């Protein structure tokens, strides 16, 4: 009989899904190049993912809250991942790739957010750190970036669908052992979603953080090209991802020790400061070895920012709307920010080079950090004023 409190299936789900995510994030551009697409066309395909997520995240989050299940929605999305990835990888024309890419991403993009939402709720129920569960996604990402990179180097990028389907199928199998969330409330209605739209602290927080998340997503898209621009090989790109995600896993794993010491917003602001420093350092780099050496900052920036921002958003929204709120947060972080970061970053990279791009990201992160600091001061003063009444 399965122990309903076991977190092992959830950790394995995060491990396997993020392993598939690595394959798409790191190697899809190379696969599309192998298919004969040029840089502009590859950019269009990569922008489809964030665009699809803007619609997919709230849609699946709403269904999850309405039917009070995260597990079933994850299973449905993974089924879509398995079926439509096969069709997506068979496409030969740009139009076909774009259309099937949109369908593929519609099912894929919510899985990470729903998995994190389930992890957050399970962590709260069991009074443990969210990071100790979420770190397994980072471990899966790191392991996959090294192992799959080596495999594809030997057999050829055209076979990337095989490891992708293997990890995807394993992810689907472990979902049957997941412990679902328990929500003792009435099913969500459309008008309930308006509560999120009218939640000013939630909306303002998303607006303030987007400056930082755009810089993060632009780096996701262009760090490989920047390393190549500085004279680095494709192998170095894999090493850079491995170092970055390994430190991210360590930050998630140790979250229980450092995270509760201060308010979540304090950690969000600290991460913003570190993001600013990181991008300015990257902009000043003249050798790809510097980027590899500085990649430990990925854990200190994304690891801290994501853990703290996710926790803060969870506090801002009612439990009934948790999945919807988490997926709106996810759509902003990885959707809107991904589109802006990819499209604007590509123009800057082509016109002015990687150094200029990273200086721009540094100033953008600085603007986000300042706006979040102002937001924190006002929200802190408001809470104190309410307590004084």
Descriptive keywords:
disordered C terminus, Growth Hormone, Chain: A, mainly alpha, lactose:proton symporter activity, 83% helix, 389 residues, 15 helices
Plain-language structure description:
With 389 residues, the chain is mainly α. The protein has one domain (8-388): MFS general substrate transporter like domains (Growth Hormone, Chain: A), CATH 1.20.1250.20. Helix content is 83%, strand content 0%. It has 15 helices and no strands. The N and C termini lie far apart (53 Å).
Strands, count:
0
Number of domains: 1
Oligomerization: single chain
Strand content: under 5%
Shape: globular
Succession of helices and strands: HHHHHHHHHHHHHHH
CATH topology, by name, is Growth Hormone, Chain: A
Structural class by helix and strand composition: mainly alpha
Look at the structure and give the CATH class: Mainly Alpha
Rg result: 20 Å
Mean pLDDT: 85
């Amino acid at each position: 009989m399965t122990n309903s409190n076991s977190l092992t299936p959830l950790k394995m789900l995060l491990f396997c899904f993020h392993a598939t995510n690595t394959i798409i994030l790191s190697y899809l551009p190379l696969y599309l190049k192998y298919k004969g697409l040029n840089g502009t066309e590859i950019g269009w395909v990569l922008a489809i993912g964030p665009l699809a997520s803007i619609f997919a995240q709230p849609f699946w989050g709403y269904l999850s809250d309405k039917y009070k299940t995260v597990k079933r929605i994850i299973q449905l999305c993974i089924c879509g991942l398995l079926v439509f990835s096969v069709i997506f990888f068979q496409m030969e024309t740009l139009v076909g790739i774009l259309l099937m890419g949109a369908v593929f991403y519609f099912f894929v993009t919510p899985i990470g957010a729903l998995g994190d939402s389930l992890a957050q709720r399970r962590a709260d129920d069991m009074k443990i750190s969210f990071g100790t569960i979420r770190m397994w996604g980072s471990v899966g990402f790191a392991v996959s970036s090294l192992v799959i990179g080596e495999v594809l180097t030997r057999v050829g990028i055209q076979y990337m669908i095989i490891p992708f389907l293997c990890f995807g199928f394993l992810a689907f199998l472990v979902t049957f052992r997941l412990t679902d969330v328990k929500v003792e409330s009435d099913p969500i209605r459309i008008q309930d979603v308006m509560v999120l739209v009218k939640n000013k602290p939630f909306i303002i927080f998303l607006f303030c953080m987007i400056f930082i998340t755009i810089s993060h997503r632009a780096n996701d898209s262009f760090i490989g090209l920047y390393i190549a621009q500085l004279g680095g090989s494709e192998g170095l790109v894999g090493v850079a991802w491995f170092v970055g995600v390994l430190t991210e896993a360590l930050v998630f794993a140790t979250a229980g020790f450092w995270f509760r010491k201060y308010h979540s917003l304090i950690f969000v602001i600290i991460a913003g400061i570190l993001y600013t420093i990181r991008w300015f350092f990257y902009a000043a780099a003249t050798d790809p070895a510097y980027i590899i050496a500085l990649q430990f900052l990925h854990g200190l920036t994304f690891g801290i920012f994501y853990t703290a921002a996710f926790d803060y958003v969870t506090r801002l929204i009612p439990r009934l709307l948790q999945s919807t709120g988490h997926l709106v947060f996810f759509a902003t972080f990885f959707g809107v920010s991904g589109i802006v970061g990819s499209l604007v970053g590509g123009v800057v990279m082509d016109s002015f080079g990687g150094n200029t791009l990273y200086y721009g990201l540094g100033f953008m992160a600085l603007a986000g950090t300042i706006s979040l600091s102002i937001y924190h001061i006002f929200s802190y003063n408001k809470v104190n004023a309410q307590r004084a009444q």
